[in-house]
């Protein structure tokens, strides 16, 4: 059972396809920038994870430039130019790895457990 009468669903999709996604992309950056500001000010985000989230903006910037180069130089979409697409996506992978390592605690000094902290050290 269709919610829309026949033909209206296709017309709706066609009208949505005609919308330029550029302004929506810019608007979508605003909540992400607000998140980065909150994360930086809260002091609760592991520093490497915060850098990873910030590095995601580098991925976005490089992807935009790569998309323009793919269109202007090769006459194709970014997804069709493997070298540019792979290079841009590798930056996303680096950012994600930074986030993962930051939240996993890599680079932090190991904290002694309560059992280790309460046992006296052997003096020889």
Protein traits:
mainly alpha; 5 helices
Structural write-up:
The protein is mostly helical and 124 residues long. It contains five helices and no strands. It is extended and about 65 Å long. It starts with 7 loop residues before the first helix and ends in a 6-residue tail after the last helix.
Listing every helix as H and every strand as E from the N terminus to the C terminus, the arrangement reads HHHHH
Structural class from helices and strands? mainly alpha
Low-confidence stretches: none
**C-alpha geometry:** extended
Span of the ends, CA to CA: 83 Å
**How large is the share of residues in beta strands?**
under 5%
Average pLDDT figure: 85
Question: Portion of residues in helices?
Answer: over 70%
The largest β sheet comes out as:
none
Secondary structure: number of strands:
0
Structure annotation, total helices: 5
Oligomerization state: single chain
Q: Nearest-angstrom radius of gyration?
A: 24 Å
Q: How would you summarize this macromolecular structure in one to three sentences?
A:
The protein is mainly α. The chain is built from five helices and no strands. The longest helix has 28 residues, at 47-74.
List the helices and strands and how they pair.
Blueprint: H1 8-17, H2 21-42, H3 47-74, H4 82-104, H5 114-118
């Amino acid at each position: 059972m269709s919610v829309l009468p026949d033909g209206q669903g296709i017309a709706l999709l066609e009208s949505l396809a005609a919308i330029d996604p550029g302004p929506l992309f810019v608007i979508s950056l605003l909540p992400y920038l607000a998140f980065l500001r909150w994360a930086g000010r809260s002091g609760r985000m592991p520093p490497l994870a915060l850098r990873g989230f910030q590095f995601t903006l580098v991925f976005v910037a490089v992807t935009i430039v790569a998309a323009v180069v793919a269109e202007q130089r090769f006459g194709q979409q970014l997804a069709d130019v493997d070298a540019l697409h792979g290079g841009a996506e590798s930056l996303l992978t680096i950012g994600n790895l930074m986030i993962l390592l930051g939240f996993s605690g890599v680079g932090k000094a190991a904290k002694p457990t309560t059992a280790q902290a309460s046992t006296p050290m052997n003096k020889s």
